[in-house]
Amino acid sequence: MKETIKSMQGLAEPFLAFLRWEASSGVILLACAILALIVANSPLSESYEHLLHYPIAIGAGEYVLEMGLLHWINDGLMAVFFFVIGLEIKREFLYGELRTYSAMLLPVGAALGGMLVPAIFYAAINYGQPTFGGWGIPMATDIAFALGIMTIAARQAPLGLVVFLTALAIVDDLGAIVVIALFYNTDLTVSALFLGLAAVAAAFVLGRFRVRFLPAYIALGLVAWLAFLQAGIHPTIAGVLLGLSIPAAADPEASLLHKLEHALEPWSAYAIMPIFALANAGVAISLATLDMTSPIFLGILAGLCLGKPIGIFGAVFVLCKVFRLQLPGNATKSQLAATGMLGGIGFTMSIFIASLAFTDSAMLDLAKISILSASILSGLLGTAFFKLQACFGGAGEKK
User: What's the rounded Cα separation, in Å, for the pair 327 and 312?
Assistant: First the structure.
C-alpha cells in the first residue's frame, strides 16, 4: 500500500511543481508586460527600440551568426522555452492526464475546439483582407496567465478542473507548434531542412536507446536549430522536437526527462517568459494601435473572448453527451464556461504567432494591443463567472 501511495505521489509531483511554477510566473509575466508598455510610451521608448534591434554576433572568422537582440530572444531564447514545452508534452502523455485514451479525450477535444472556433471567427472577420494571415493568433492559451488567475480567483474550483485546464493548455501548445511549423515559415531550403531533420532523428535514436549523455542532445539540438534557421523553418521547432526526444523511464523521478524539466522549468517560467514579455509587449499606444474597428482587433477579440469559450465548452459538452462522461472534476456548467473564458488568455504564444504572421510593424503593434486587450477581458470575464458561481452555488445545474 505504501509503495502504491509513493508511486502515485511520484506521478503527481511533476504536475504539482509545474502548476506552482506556471501559476506564480503569471504575476511576473503580467508585471513585465505592463513595464514594457510603460517604457514604450515614455521618453525611454527610443532607447528601448534601439536596444531591441542592437546587433549581436556569435561565432568566429567566417562562421558568424548576427541578429538583433529581439531576434535572439524570439528565435534563440524561445527555443529553450519550446524545449521545455516539448518535455511537458511528453511528460503529460507518459505520466500525466493524457496517458490514457479516456483521460485525454476531454482535454484534447476541448483544445481542438478551442483552436478551431477562434481561428474560424478571425478568418471570417478578416476574409479577403491582407490581415487574413493572422488566423492562428487567437488559437493559443497562455498556461501561466490562465492558471495564475484560476489559482487566485477560483480557489473553490475543483482540482480536476485545474488539471483539465493544464492538460488543455499543453495540447493547445502542441497545436500551436504544429500551426507554426506548417503555416508560418518562409521559403524552404531543402538541404538545410534535411540536415535539421537528420539531427532531430539522431536525437530520437539516442532517446530510443535511453542514452543519458546530455552533451550529445545539446550538440544535436544546436545543429537542428541552425539548420532550421537556414532552412526557413522557425528554429524554435527544433527546441520542441528535441524535448520530445529526451528519454523517459518507468520511474518518472529517475528519468532524464524529469530532471531536465525540473531544472529548466523555473528558468522558463521566471526568466525566459518575462524577458519575452519585456521585449515583445512594448507597444507605443496611439490612435492607430487602438483602432477598435480594425479587422485585426475585431478578429482577435472575437476569437479569444468568444471563440475560445464557445469552442472549449461546446467540445466538452458534445463529448460528455456522446460518451456519457462527467464534466472535468465534476464541475458545474458555469465553472466549465468560466474555464473556457480563461482559455481566451492568449498572450505569450499569441504574440509569438503574431510576430510570425505580420511583417508590417503597424499591423504587429495593433495585433499586440488586441491580444493584450482580449486577454485582459477574458481574464476578467472568467474571474467574474467564477465569483458569480461561488455566490450562487450553481444551483440547478446538471454536473
Answer: 12
Whether 399 contacts 331, CB under 8 Å: yes
- The residue type at 325: L
Alpha carbon of 285 to those of 36, 240, 280: distances in Å? 12, 34, 14
220 vs 290, more confident: 220
- The whole-chain average pLDDT of the chain stands at 87
With CA atoms as reference, report the closest residue to 141 among 361, 350, 352: 350
Residues in the chain: 399
pLDDT tens, residue by residue, 151-174: 776 667 777 788 888 889 888 988
Per-residue pLDDT tens for 108-144? 999 999 999 999 999 999 999 999 999 999 998 887 7
Kindly provide the residue ranges of all beta strands, DSSP E only, lying in the chain, ordered along the sequence.
Answer: 55-60, 63-68
User: What is the Cα–Cα distance from 245 to 181, expressed in whole angstroms?
Assistant: 17
Cα-Cα-Cα-Cα torsion 70, 76, 78, 84, nearest 10 degrees, comes to -170
pLDDT in tens, 33-85: 999 999 999 999 999 999 999 999 998 878 889 999 999 999 999 999 999 99
**pLDDT (tens digit, 9 = 90+) per residue, 311-344?**
999 999 999 999 988 888 788 888 899 999 999 9
Asked whether the beta carbons of 176 and 136 are under 8 A apart, the reply is: yes
The torsion angles phi and psi of 59, rounded to 5 degrees, stand at 130, -170
* Grid coordinates belonging to 242: 528535441
Domain segments of the chain: what residues? 14-185+234-392
Half-sphere exposure (Cβ direction) of 394: Cα atoms closer than 13 Å: 19
In CATH terms, the superfamily for domain 14-185+234-392 is Na+/H+ antiporter like domain (1.20.1530.10)
Beta bridge partners of 58: 65
CA distance 151 to 178: 29
Q: State pTM to two decimals.
A: 0.84
Are 248 and 94 in contact by the 8 Å Cβ rule? The answer is yes
> What are the residues whose beta carbons fall under 8 Å from the beta carbon of 42, sequence distance 6 or more?
none
Query: With contact defined as beta carbons under 8 Å apart, do 224 and 242 qualify?
Result: yes
